[in-house]
Amino acid sequence: MNVCDSFWLEKALKLRGWESVSEKEADVFLVNTCSVREKPEQKVYSLLGRIRPYINKKKHAFVGVGGCVAQQVGESLWERFPEVRLVFGTDGLVYVPNALEHLAEEPKRRISLLEFAESYPEREKLWTKVSLPSQAYVNIMQGCNNFCAYCVVPFTRGRQKSRISYAVLEECHELVQGGVREITLLGQNVNSYGQDPFGDGVSFSELLSKVCQISGLARVHFTTSHPKDISREVIEAYGRYSNLCPHLHLPLQSGSNKVLGNMGRKYTREIYLDIVRQLRSVRPEISISTDIIVGFPGETYKDFLQTLDVMQRVRFDWSYSFKYSDRPFVRAAKFPDKLSEDVKSIRLQALQRLQEAMTLKSMQGLLNKEVTVLVEGPSSWNNGSYPLWRGRETGGRVVNFNWFGNENIEGALIKVKVTQAKKHSLFGEGVKFYDS
Predict the structure, then answer these.
(1) How many CA atoms lie within 13 A of 240 on its CB side?
(2) Taking Cα atoms as reference points, which of 286, 227, 284 lies closest to residue 254?
(3) Are 227 and 202 in contact (CB under 8 A)?
């Protein structure tokens, strides 16, 4: 979501005459932030400290801080970091270009854009005016109504606001006309799209169907899905649309029903496993990734073993796993039975070892097979002879491959034969351009 927001903001500013430059040359630094865990929030303060020397060398240079940390701590940033003259939340992003122009003209002014909008704040339409990459993100909603016990998102991104469906579809069409080949639909919980007063009666399954039918759109993804809201119609879409990529990120968080209940997740391990069964019945090759929290308050060793058990039953292709940390405003911050950092670290290491083995096995399952890769650009790996390119196959796995031609193939769909599987990526030989 922050990548999507930052991409729009950069393009909007360039259209107004701003230029992206190095730290030494910059008059304005914009920092887009995340506070879903404590560690990213601390990184923000560290980054602001590293920026300060550049600010001090220019008389009118300043910083704008946006995103969830800005929404969370607000104008108190001005006290700790006087060089910060703009704070904006996710709903305030649309006003940032105008605000920067005012701040550039009035060196002593400060601006706060932290009010939550009453409906989805539509942004300036840019995509017919700028060059576009082959991949793009499209917001379909903002905020969340779930209030899971550990999650700060409803407080930093506000309550759920669905975007009007025609605006989503119009943006998708413009992106495809501009050369985009892959679109990822974004929302804190895409499956609940339309289930709020701001929608226009279109459900997520209906919106997904319309996006998949856009002519020229080679690939469609969506994230993130809450298991409690995923519908049979969304599951069946994986069997109906070939351009709906066979990958789903489906956060588990815990394999213990007791812990899931304490988290306020509103599904059980049995419901989760049944969703996976349904997905694999309509799209057997689907890759499934997840989020897992270890060490939630009150989690016993038995609860932790139940999480490992679900992991083994599902065979996640990869996962993002974290130690529980208290966040501001959330219910879990007041829960008793907090686990020690040592216990959380031991459990996280055990979980990640299991996941590494499953990820490697998933990668090895593609050895000697041909996969279709959407090329993102040159690879950071170098084999010393032919150039290596990098992209992702339809299941979301990173593929580095040789291409025995001199042309620029960024944005192309290439058939690649997989010859090697590493822990987190695949290597192969480019075979031919893919004819879709």
Answers:
(1) 14
(2) 227
(3) no
The whole-angstrom separation of Cα 113 and Cα 123 is 15
For the record, the structure tokens of 385 come out as 């002879």
What is the mean predicted confidence (pLDDT) over 247-270? 98
Rg (CA), the chain: 23
361 backbone dihedrals φ, ψ, rounded to 5°: -65, -40
Band (384; pLDDT cuts 50, 70, 90): low
Q: Are 392 and 379 a contacting pair, CB within 8 Å?
A: no
- How far apart CA 76 and CA 308 sit, in angstroms, is 42
| DSSP-assigned beta bridge partners for residue 417 | 370, 429
Confidence band of 382 (pLDDT split at 50, 70, 90): confident
Question: Distance between CA atoms of 314 and 38, rounded to whole angstroms?
Answer: 29
Give the separation between CA 219 and CA 175, rounded to whole angstroms.
13
Q: Which domains does the chain have, with CATH numbers?
A: 2-113 (3.40.50.12160), 118-245 (3.30.750.210), 281-364 (3.30.750.200), 370-433 (2.40.50)
For residues 51 and 56, give the distance between their C-alpha atoms in angstroms, rounded to a whole number: 9
Average pLDDT value for residue range 406-415: 93
pTM for the structure as a whole: 0.95
DSSP class of residue 332 equals G
